[in-house]
Amino acid sequence: MSSFDLIGVGSPIMDLLATVPESFLQHVRGEKGGMVLVDADEMHGILSRLEIAPATSTGGSSANATFNAARLGLRASFLGKLGNDTLAASYRTSFVAAGVDGSRFKRGALPNARCLALVTPDAQRTLRTCLGAAMTLAPEEITAADFAGCRHAHIEGYLVFNQALADAVLAAARAAGCTVSLDLASFDVINVTRDWIFSQLHKGIDVVFANEDEIRALFQDQTSDYATLTRRLADYGVLAAVKLGKDGAWLATGDEMHRIAPVIVTDVIDTNGAGDAWAAGFLFGYLRGWPLPQCGAVASLMGAETVRHLGPIIPASHWPAVRARALALASRQS
């Protein structure tokens, strides 16, 4: 029996959360809704223009998914490089308190990674990330031993900005016998790594998560409907999960095709982390062998709850109700 159901792989980033007017983005490099890497000076410049200091929360795409999956009940670990500062110490403490194994974090000599999430009144999040220590994780630091005892590795697409590192992670996970999921993360990632993504699909990935913008960017197709695009992705031999936000999702694998209904939310505050929570809910069911519609139902529940709060982490006070609803879905599988 494996020690862990899930190991997340990615950058352990401390999120900085700021609500801003639409006009603020006119002075920020890059497109609204995307993720752009910035250096320490550019990050400082953006932060200096904020009227109110940002709130903080643990973040990082795969890290968010792992954190939520552990709270739901999966046995989880995480692989990524922390920094040498108080943000790093706080980050690890939060993960261990949530039930995530902290023994596979690596340590770097730079400050911890930070991601500034600029949330506009339409609840859209625009991300600007300074990777710090996380950027120094090197391919030669990754071995199959990092994945020992783990059933499934969930890898964030942002890692693909360093293709040598992503290659090392996938090779090590496969060598350790893990099944693998990849979250495509952002259209910004896909626009510069499309060839690499297709090469890995041909080598074999078990689950691919994408949202509306990402699936269109992957296939450079702005006209086909999402059911068609989901099926097109599944034709690569993967379980394709295409998230449509408030419109639910499509799931496809082999001969199966499922439309996943959304959980309606009337008090949306912030979409940051919703896709990661959706992935956590899906993996919670998938790694227990549930039928895909039930996996999607828990995923929708998790995504819907996340958008009701600022930041990517559902507040602790809301977890008893969220977990009870998820486990009620679980009881239908027994």
TrEMBL record:
Keyword Coiled coil listed: no
Protein name: PfkB domain protein
Alphabetical list of SUPFAM superfamilies matching this protein: Ribokinase-like
Domain of life the protein comes from: Bacteria
Pfam family, one: PfkB
GO molecular function: kinase activity
Family assignment from sequence similarity: Belongs to the carbohydrate kinase PfkB family.
Keyword Transmembrane: no
